[in-house]
Design brief:
Elements lengths: L1 E9 L11 H11 L3 E2 L2 E2 L2 H11 L4 E4 L4 H4 L2 H12 L3 E6 L4 H4 L19 H17 L7 E4 L6 H10 L3 E2 L23 E3 L2 E3 L4 E3 L5 E3 L7 H13 L4 E7 L4 E2 L4 E2 L1 H16 L3 E3 L23 H18 L3
Parallel strand pairs: 1-4, 1-12, 1-15, 4-5, 5-6, 6-7, 7-9
Antiparallel strand pairs: 2-3, 8-9, 10-11, 13-14
Helix pairs in contact: 6-7
Length: about 325
């Protein structure tokens, strides 16, 4: 049985932050969490309904850092519906919010930074403790898994997670070797592995025509590629495969308009996984990703010219008609 983890980074946008007032928070919620459009919501309520309809599970990595500017209610409004729907809440952290926090910054130094890896170990421990405690205070169970905002973790982040009792991290994205992640794992590490006293669970990938990898994100792969990747993982005997999504990915946030191409991808993935033999969706709380067995590292789904061509065409249409996130 291959366990598929549909992970959803659930976050307000610091880039759309317009002030500490209630109206700013409501507007940011509408564009980043609820994704309220003229065609109806396409954010977490839509995803929760879809998961319930097909009896599937997902992991919502929730960022509690906006509580620094908007208070606990801003996080409670996210956590409550997810828990009520029986889905998994784990910890996310965008340190960009520190630049808006002023005196509420939990660090004595009042240091700010784009990614958690920008901070020394002791301050990472403080930030992660604040984020964990805030998430719990907002109604979530104590988290056991973490993903850094922007994937921007380093080895000290993993040490800090171990220090505060969080045993899983999912910040390593093998396909984004030029990204902001500084964890000392290479692009060939595609399976869960023990590293710095935690279990690192890499984001999924597929192969590219030029010999590289492409990350398994809802906006980066077609539905055909995602399903082929799951079937390949099942055929190769992989015990887990991780997809990445975001709370706002089914819309253009600035236009508040649905992107029907990406929405169909997410809907099709959830529906197909419910019907696919030898596959189940998982959560960190109930059935976390197991460590990979000893032996040869798994290989990603090989590149396919036809699938790649279809993706390029689909991405062109999606960007041209519906714009970037």
């Amino acid at each position: 049985m291959t366990r598929v983890f549909i992970t959803i980074d659930t976050e307000y946008s610091s880039g759309l932050y317009a002030g500490p007032d209630a109206a700013s928070r409501a507007e940011n919620y509408a564009r980043s969490i609820g994704c309220i459009t003229p065609e109806g919501p396409s954010g977490i309520s839509h995803k929760l309904e879809l998961l319930n309809r097909y009896g599937q599970k997902a992991v919502f990595f929730v960022d509690p850092m906006p509580a620094l500017v908007w208070g606990m209610a801003a996080i409670e409004d996210i956590v409550g519906p997810i828990i009520a729907a029986g889905q998994d809440v784990q910890l996310h952290c965008h340190t960009e919010w520190l630049r808006h926090a002023g005196s509420a910054n939990p660090l004595t130094s009042k240091r700010t930074g784009l990614c958690i890896a920008d901070f020394p170990f002791d301050e990472q421990c403080q930030l992660l403790t604040y984020a964990r405690d805030t998430l719990i205070a907002a109604g979530a169970p104590a988290p056991i898994a973490f993903r850094a905002g922007n994937y921007g973790a380093n080895d000290d982040t993993l040490r800090a997670l171990a220090e505060i009792g969080i045993g899983y991290d999912s910040s390593h994205c093998p396909a984004l070797s030029d990204g902001l992640c500084r964890i000392s794992l290479g692009p060939d590490i595609r399976d869960p592995v023990e590293h710095m006293a935690v279990i690192e669970v890499p984001a999924g990938t597929i192969g590219t025509l030029r010999g590289g990898q492409r990350h398994a994100q809802i906006t980066a792969l077609t539905l055909a590629e995602m399903l082929a990747a799951v079937r390949h993982a099942r055929h190769e005997g992989r015990e887990s495969f991780t997809f990445v999504s975001h709370s706002f990915e089914l819309i253009n946030r600035r236009k508040l308009a649905v992107n029907p191409i990406v929405r169909r991808r997410f809907t099709g993935l959830v529906q197909a996984l419910a019907e696919m033999p030898g596959v189940e969706t998982g959560t960190y709380t109930a059935n976390p990703p197991p460590l990979a067995g000893q032996g040869t590292a798994s290989l990603p789904l090989p590149a396919n010219a036809m699938r790649t061509g279809m993706r390029l065409a689909e991405q062109f249409v999606s960007n041209a008609l519906y714009g970037a996130l």
